[in-house]
Amino acid sequence: MLPRGRPRALGAAALLLLLLLIGFFLFRGDLDYERPRPRGAAAFDGDPPADPGGHNGSDCILPRPRPPKCELLQVAIVCAGHNSSRDVITLVKSMLFYRKNPLHLHLVTDAVARNILETLFHTWMVPAVRISFYNADELKPQVSWIPNKHYSGLYGLMKLVLPSALPPDLARVIVLDTDVTFASNIAELWALFAHFSDKQVIGLVENQSDWYLGNLWRNHRPWPALGRGFNTGVILLRLDRLRQAGWEQMWKLTATRELLTLPATSLADQDIFNAIIKEHPWLVQPLPCVWNVQLSDHTLAERCYSEASDLKVIHWNSPKKLRVKNKHVESFRNLYLTFLEYDGNLLRRELFGCPRPPPPGAEQLQRALAQLDEEDACFEFRRQQLTVHRVHITFLPHKPPPPQPHDVTLVAQLSMDRVQMLEALCRHWPGPMSLALYLTDAEAQQFLRFVETSVVLSTRQDVAYHVVYREGPLYPINQLRNVALAQALTPYVFLSDIDFLPAYSLYDYLRASIKELELGSGRKAALVVPAFETLHYRFSFPSSKAELLALLDAGSLHTFRYHEWPRGHAPTDYARWREAQAPYHVQWAADYEPYVVVPRDCPRYDPRFAGFGWNKVAHVVELDAREYELLVLPEAFVIHLPHAPSLDISRFRSSPTYRDCLQALKDEFHQDLSRRYGAAALKYLTALQQPRGPT
Amino acid sequence: MLPRGRPRALGAAALLLLLLLIGFFLFRGDLDYERPRPRGAAAFDGDPPADPGGHNGSDCILPRPRPPKCELLQVAIVCAGHNSSRDVITLVKSMLFYRKNPLHLHLVTDAVARNILETLFHTWMVPAVRISFYNADELKPQVSWIPNKHYSGLYGLMKLVLPSALPPDLARVIVLDTDVTFASNIAELWALFAHFSDKQVIGLVENQSDWYLGNLWRNHRPWPALGRGFNTGVILLRLDRLRQAGWEQMWKLTATRELLTLPATSLADQDIFNAIIKEHPWLVQPLPCVWNVQLSDHTLAERCYSEASDLKVIHWNSPKKLRVKNKHVESFRNLYLTFLEYDGNLLRRELFGCPRPPPPGAEQLQRALAQLDEEDACFEFRRQQLTVHRVHITFLPHKPPPPQPHDVTLVAQLSMDRVQMLEALCRHWPGPMSLALYLTDAEAQQFLRFVETSVVLSTRQDVAYHVVYREGPLYPINQLRNVALAQALTPYVFLSDIDFLPAYSLYDYLRASIKELELGSGRKAALVVPAFETLHYRFSFPSSKAELLALLDAGSLHTFRYHEWPRGHAPTDYARWREAQAPYHVQWAADYEPYVVVPRDCPRYDPRFAGFGWNKVAHVVELDAREYELLVLPEAFVIHLPHAPSLDISRFRSSPTYRDCLQALKDEFHQDLSRRYGAAALKYLTALQQPRGPT
């Protein structure tokens, strides 16, 4: 049991004095900013104070404490919502960049963040990183009684309940705010646990503003704190001792008592931690200030470091974040941007020297990759098919549409060179969309800024953007489609492509058609949306089928790919469509690739088709093999806009092996079909026998 | 003088033995790979051996040697050609990322590398980095007599002459190969100078292959070396002592003697360094192997490191470079790719704590930036105009065209979304081109791969690609044009835009016209190339003026921007052009923006026009103000291909402040015109009085 309460207050005061003195001499004046820092102290360079029992001779220093090689380091982070999830990823990238130890991340998340981060880490496959999730919503009742004014909301307060929320056998943990960036190896921070005395349970850096001194403005009444108080953006917690000491009771008592005279917490958990420390100062181990360089409003952080090598952890603890005012903010910002735009795939590097069980699926993947034949002309295709792309679902804030029985989500995929299509698409499709974007980490930030500066896009919360990070030379078109499809939340999906603009009425019309055709009652059908194209770059979109037909007759519009590949859409029977008043059935034929509306649980796209060619055709074969009716809708249409060929297309169209590989992949696809559907699949093989040009 | 020659050979042998023994016990078995490494030795973690005179108590170690804070570290690199220049930049990025000290880089370069690197560092403006250049061509005679079979060619050998080539007052220098990547702070390497004994002059890491043991294959006869010999990818040189010791004579004698029996050096300078060390072993201070982890063919590097934190410098010393075989090559590759794609702008961060004179121009720039008003609606425009973009000229190998009196270079600029235009452009324009590309560091690598995989592009050595690195939200169109223009090497330039394809005959026709019109003899004229456009994405290019006129009559082609902004090209007088058989004069009119051929020394574009609008118009005003004749060529034409609006355009077209700013910039441009041309500029102001729509 830790000493507690009034009877030991005198001893505590003495200990505090001692701590303050040690702190002054060893921590380069951290606890007293006003005094000039002794020059020689700079030699400590952010290192912990020497153990008074050590052999601190004149020519040597104590070895820089390092945790045992390969020790598993424990880190806890509370994270809620779309924006914080993006922040956590940047924090984790900086941590992984410098780390040399295996890590176990304990993520306390709401449902949104869990969904995002679970997918992300599952697909990231970083060696020697283990992830555990904890349900923040279950912890809410423990802190929701505390009135709080801080921008972090309820989630900030959850750091208080970590000793009971984390596994009972977890003895030590580093707790981090989502807005910190590492500039050093986290093992050096972990090593500071070794300096805790028997009574110390919390390691904290002093607060780097005058907030707790209560002199920032008139009538400013902060929560009680020791001097400047401590900042809780970076915490070292001895969970074992906290549990023994009855931490839960302790903080609840303190909070309850202070809330008798104070209306609410201003800085969330930090106010309560400080009130406890004020009462029980022996609990705290002050940490060198460089482990939490705070860029808060009114920051005094410049007093903490004197050179770049001092900096260990930057804390963007202002609601202004990167726009905060500090003399060296440009340098800090560069560090932050470094990791924001850093290619996360590069962090998949093995932590050699520390054998750890590989991430789930990684071993299987390694085996499959090892079996590939590098001399195979289709090697790139096969490797691309096996590539597990890092996926960040709902990259931007997103509100799922309220459940409606006939609702339909537009599903598409794109890369950066088609981002300009989004505004027009939003104007044409007022319903929910699920879009997969194939981007680098840096492009994802460019995309974020693009959406934020677009009035059209930033006001739409029913469009979900799923970032699939680039890797490999081929555009993984069907993997992207599958990501977007898997994230659609309505019962129906419209499987479109990004270069098509739907008729303005299409969203309403599709929902009405779904209802009318009673697709909901188990009818297995694919509703075909006829596709057209314009070759004119400037183009006035038809507002009705009648107008569309007029443009068709005038030669301003064509049926899609009429000039190069009419087979792709011929079965839609455009002649019949002209006259049709009601939906009509059509039959599958070889190479048919219409745009369709199907129930969300439709077959997935075949990921073997990467790059360009046959990717949609194979999907429609699959629909037909599973006996989906094909029903053409008489009032539905989409129009393809012209564009220059994308880089991804042009790189492979000219490749001599490309066509050969595509043929090999098609053959393998048909073999798989026969295996799965037996004699019924024969018709697809027969259709294939007739030689044709490329799709 | 250093001890030399036979009489001291016995003493030398004893010293060598001692060195080997110390090396074995302290360098983790670096000098003897075969023996199992004692487990405890891992604690050295790449640190230098303890000074035997130090207080090496049981509970403490010697402080990790660090150079004094802010000490200027000296680094020398030999670099020649386009590809090595790209390598050096990646090396420098890795060095800058981890460095905390000011650096002085001594670059021994051929003319190509000097041109590239001088421009790069001048525009990079990294604080606390000084650059000096040394002419490699002048050093050639000193080493060209040595027959050499290594892939580095003559330039590898130049490391031998650094003691005389570098300034006489330079006492110590770290010498690096262009194919090394830092994974640590170079100051730790510099600190190893402190461990040199009085006699040691060269710090080297042992060679990590069996090459010098001579047992790799039958009849393999390497140069003489101590054991496995040393690798010269990373060298610590005591230049002062080498000069005193008569280094020049020493290496020349050794090389001459060995070349009596050996036909040539196989590994360039490294063979000669090893032969000298074999003869004078006391000269060498062996360095911990982690400072030069060699991924050569037959590498044994895996024996050097046991965990990731050991690695300090990776050396890609195989002609295969990244494709080398090593168990951990994926990790090393990731480190390399990290810096290859790292945004170099982020390395402009201030080295605070070490006040150094700012890079040339930086102070002036800071002042100008500080004077900008953040509340000014045109703030972004003004800041973009002041931005100094990092420029990497001739990013890819380039052979300047042989000088011809009437030759003309096509000048244009583009970003990644127009790279697909390059192949078509190459087919239409067989002459030299100077193209500025606005890219991120990562995109530059994507671009490199694009060119390398394109047969059309990779066979053209007369196309110079100049990478201008992205920074800021506006597309700096006129800054890009100025970069491309400044790098054109022919007497004339055709100032075009990337979306235009020239008539197949245009290059020949322009040269003939220049000759015929006697532009060379000081005639100040701009030859106008009439511009057309197609709105059709698929389009068959006319092979003659007659064919073009037929398409024009058929409505498949239009004069450029006929529908939106006819004023831009109206003065070209297309009606007259139809009939013209000879060049004809036209007069300037407001908003005229033709594509022109001018002498290379023409006025530069006004960099204040960033983003889109008025950027060419202002240039043509300037040509007219300087009294260039405007002569339309009767057989010349270019055709604009349709494309989706670029991201850069769409972001700002919708901006409400954009038009206001453009107007403000136009007004300021006209004020400047009046200042420079007085009353003559009045006509431009008058023309402006008539209100019109945007350009």
From TrEMBL, chains A, B:
Would I find Glycoprotein among this entry's keywords?
Answer: yes
- Report the GO terms under cellular component: Golgi membrane
The record's section on InterPro entries has:
Glyco_trans_8, Nucleotide-diphossugar_trans, Xyl/GlcA_transferase
Q: How does it sit in the membrane?
A: Single-pass type II membrane protein
What pathway does the UniProt record associate with this protein?
Protein modification; protein glycosylation
Q: Give yes or no: UniProt keyword Glycoprotein.
A: yes
Lineage top rank: taxon? Eukaryota
| Keywords, in A-Z order | Glycoprotein, Glycosyltransferase, Golgi apparatus, Manganese, Membrane, Metal-binding, Multifunctional enzyme, Signal-anchor, Transferase, Transmembrane, Transmembrane helix
- Cofactor dependence: Mn(2+)
Chief localisation class:
Golgi
Annotated region described as Disordered, given as residue ranges: 40-61
Alphabetical list of SUPFAM superfamilies matching this protein: Nucleotide-diphospho-sugar transferases
Q: Name one GO molecular function term.
A: xylosyltransferase activity
* Reactions listed under catalytic activity: 3-O-[beta-D-GlcA-(1->3)-beta-D-Xyl-(1->4)-Rib-ol-P-Rib-ol-P-3-beta-D-GalNAc-(1->3)-beta-D-GlcNAc-(1->4)-(O-6-P-alpha-D-Man)]-Thr-[protein] + UDP-alpha-D-xylose = 3-O-[alpha-D-Xyl-(1->3)-beta-D-GlcA-(1->4)-beta-D-Xyl-(1->4)-Rib-ol-P-Rib-ol-P-3-beta-D-GalNAc-(1->3)-beta-D-GlcNAc-(1->4)-(O-6-P-alpha-D-Man)]-Thr-[protein] + UDP + H(+); 3-O-{(1->[3)-alpha-D-Xyl-(1->3)-beta-D-GlcA-(1->](n)-4)-beta-D-Xyl-(1->4)-Rib-ol-P-Rib-ol-P-3-beta-D-GalNAc-(1->3)-beta-D-GlcNAc-(1->4)-O-6-P-alpha-D-Man}-L-Thr-[protein] + UDP-alpha-D-glucuronate = 3-O-{beta-D-GlcA-(1->[3)-alpha-D-Xyl-(1->3)-beta-D-GlcA-(1->](n)-4)-beta-D-Xyl-(1->4)-Rib-ol-P-Rib-ol-P-3-beta-D-GalNAc-(1->3)-beta-D-GlcNAc-(1->4)-O-6-P-alpha-D-Man}-L-Thr-[protein] + UDP + H(+); 3-O-{beta-D-GlcA-(1->[3)-alpha-D-Xyl-(1->3)-beta-D-GlcA-(1->](n)-4)-beta-D-Xyl-(1->4)-Rib-ol-P-Rib-ol-P-3-beta-D-GalNAc-(1->3)-beta-D-GlcNAc-(1->4)-O-6-P-alpha-D-Man}-L-Thr-[protein] + UDP-alpha-D-xylose = 3-O-{(1->[3)-alpha-D-Xyl-(1->3)-beta-D-GlcA-(1->](n+1)-4)-beta-D-Xyl-(1->4)-Rib-ol-P-Rib-ol-P-3-beta-D-GalNAc-(1->3)-beta-D-GlcNAc-(1->4)-O-6-P-alpha-D-Man}-L-Thr-[protein] + UDP + H(+)
A Gene Ontology biological process noted in the UniProt record is:
protein O-linked glycosylation via mannose
Pfam families tied to this protein: Glyco_transf_49 (PF13896), Glyco_transf_8 (PF01501)
The listed locations are: Golgi apparatus membrane
User: According to its UniProt entry, what is the function of this protein?
Assistant: Bifunctional glycosyltransferase with both alpha-1,3-xylosyltransferase and beta-1,3-glucuronyltransferase activities involved in the maturation of alpha-dystroglycan (DAG1) by glycosylation leading to DAG1 binding to laminin G-like domain-containing extracellular proteins with high affinity and in a phosphorylated-O-mannosyl trisaccharide dependent manner. Elongates the glucuronyl-beta-1,4-xylose-beta disaccharide primer structure by adding repeating units [-3-Xylose-alpha-1,3-GlcA-beta-1-] to produce a heteropolysaccharide. Supports the maturation of DAG1 more effectively than LARGE1.
Report the sequence similarity comment from the record: In the N-terminal section; belongs to the glycosyltransferase 8 family.
| Protein name according to UniProt | LARGE xylosyl- and glucuronyltransferase 2 isoform X2
